[in-house]
Design a protein that fits this description.
The protein has 121 residues and is mainly β. It has strands at 2-7, 10-13, 18-26, 35-42, 49-54, 60-62, 70-75, 80-85, 94-102, 110-111, 115-120. Strands 2, 4, 5, 6, 9, 10 and 11 form a seven-stranded mixed sheet that branches. The chain has a four-stranded antiparallel sheet with strand order 1-3-8-7, with no helix packed on it. The chain starts with a strand and ends with a strand. 31% of the residues are buried.
Length: 121
């Protein structure tokens, strides 16, 4: 089992930056190295969508809408995944969730409670 706790959300003006953090707590017997960690977001009235993911080896995937603006990184020693967001736009406003899935599955089964990011114009 993996527990995820996000932090770092807030209110920022368009063009600004924010850094989100997600700390993963792993139950005894579990191995975080087999877990792909990711950031998803859910804008108001819309479905949750993948923003970026990263494997324990550092392989990354980004949504087209954030490429060149957001950077996902992972510290395996600290069991933490980060999302550095720059050039923020009002369309980035959403609840951002940290998620995790096993390497052998495409389904995210571990979720944090989310952190609100609001970008004002």
């Amino acid at each position: 089992q993996v527990q995820l706790v996000e932090s770092g959300g807030g209110l920022v003006q368009a063009g600004g930056s924010l850094r989100l953090s997600c700390v993963a707590s792993v139950a005894s017997g579990s191995d975080l190295r087999i877990v792909v960690l990711a950031w998803h977001r859910q804008p108001p009235g819309k479905q949750r969508e993948l923003v970026a993911s990263i494997s324990s080896g550092g392989s990354t995937v980004y949504a087209d809408s954030v490429k060149g603006r957001f950077t996902i990184s992972r510290d395996n020693v600290k069991s933490t995944v980060y999302l550095e967001m720059t050039s923020l736009k009002p369309d980035d406003t959403a609840v951002y969730y940290c998620g995790g899935r096993r390497l052998t599955s495409s389904t995210y089964i571990y979720w944090g409670r989310g952190t609100q990011v609001t970008v004002s114009s």
